[in-house]
Amino acid sequence: MSFRLFEGKEHADIYQKYRFDPPDEVKSIILSYLDKKKGKPHVLAVDLGCGTGQNTRVLAPHFQEVVGIDVSEAQLAVARRVPGSPNITYRASPAEDLPFEDGSVDLVTAASAAHWFNADAFLKEAERVLKPRGCIALLGYSTTTCELHCNNGTGDLTEVLTEVWDCLMPYGNKQVEVSNSMLQEILEAIRFPEKERVENIAVKTRLSVCDFLGYVQSFSMYQAYSKADPEAAKTMIQRIQQRFLEMGVSSAEKELEIWQKYFCVLASKPE
Ligand SMILES: C[S@@+](CC[C@H](N)C(=O)[O-])C[C@H]1O[C@@H](n2cnc3c(N)ncnc32)[C@H](O)[C@@H]1O
Questions:
Q1: Which residue has the higher pLDDT, 247 or 136?
Q2: Which of 55, 72, 125, 142, when mutated, tests ligand 1's pocket best, judged by the most ligand atoms within 8 Å of its CB?
Q3: Cβ partners under 8 Å of residue 204, min gap 6
Q4: How much distance in Å is there from the Cα of 220 to the middle of ligand 1?
Q5: Could you tell me if the CB of 94 is within 6 A of ligand 1?
Q6: Where is the Methyltransferase type domain (predicted)?
Q7: Could you tell me what percent of the chain has a pLDDT over 70?
């Protein structure tokens, strides 16, 4: 079964506009791991649950070919519209049934996405399509460890972020918990003997108040909230704006900094 929470066109547009690219720090960890375990050449990378292609585009300069895979046509349509390199293609397919030959892929990634897959089926497919010594890299961050700051003297705004999560959590599901556990159950289910999780990769991203509000609306939990009670969801966004004002953040253009701790589950297929 696939979770179909990213199907709306409007959601896909919000996603492309407001979600962050995977940070360089995580990209370097993944490429070093691939170099160490498999070595060059880096021919084919497959980015599962690619959404609007943030991670797919980040990988493109490092591979001869990168294929972004997603079940959502709406997300893929937006991904195809974003200028990228000619070595990227996007294909509609579930992560559990991949359109690649056995032993043909150097790297399988999933950025903020693996928690949506059927773990056993997707891992079996990853095992099948990877070349010997090819690698899996599943990256993401736990929403529970994010902090929010402002450099104008107002300082720590994390309590606003906590209020946002408190509001949205009832619209989460088991998959959000899997993500917040840093994919513990997927790590355990990987059958390759060589596997590890790199944790606490600290990343600070600057964004305006406006962009922060867009980022909140990109979450599947917000989309579920908005579907269940559109007025309440809108009111929540207005309430965040009001909270920022109360805390001395005086305009929507003010710059905030979100502090995230990324993790990356890495594994390499035996020879
Ligand atoms: C949170 S988004 C992540 C998008 C992007 N990788 C990023 O870093 O922002 C999760 C994506 O996984 C896709 N997805 C969910 N279940 C899937 C499945 N079983 N197979 C392929 N894609 C799936 C959704 O359609 C969605 O685009």
A1: 136
A2: 72
A3: 257, 258, 259, 260
A4: 11
A5: yes
A6: 46-137
A7: 96
Mean pLDDT of the chain: 93
Contact 2 CB / ligand 1 (< 6 Å): yes
Residue 2 phi, psi (nearest 5): -100, 145
Q: Kindly indicate the confidence band of residue 10, based on its pLDDT and cuts at 50, 70 and 90.
A: confident
Domain borders along the chain are 9-268
Of ligand 1's listed atoms, the one at least distance from the Cα of 220 is 1
Ligand 1 contact via 116 beta carbon (within 6 Å): yes
Question: Could you tell me which residue, 249 or 109, shows the higher pLDDT?
Answer: 109
Give the class (CATH, top level) of 9-268. Answer: alpha beta
* Contact in structure between 68 and 92 (CB atoms under 8 Å): no
CA–centroid distance, 61 to ligand 1, in Å, is 22
* C-beta of residue 190 within 8 angstroms of C-beta of residue 267: yes
Q: Which of 134, 142, 109 is nearest to 259 (CA)?
A: 142
Distance 223 CA to ligand 1 centre (A): 15
Write phi, then psi, for 4 (nearest 5 degrees). -105, 65
Q: Is 134 in the pocket of ligand 1 (CB under 6 A)?
A: no
- Per-residue burial over 236-266, b = 16 or more CB atoms within 10 Å of its CB, e = otherwise: bbeebbeebeeeebeeeebebebebbbbbbb
Confidence category of residue 16, pLDDT binned at 50, 70, 90: confident
User: CA-CA distance, 194 to 185, in Å (whole number)?
Assistant: 16
| Residue type present at position 126 | A
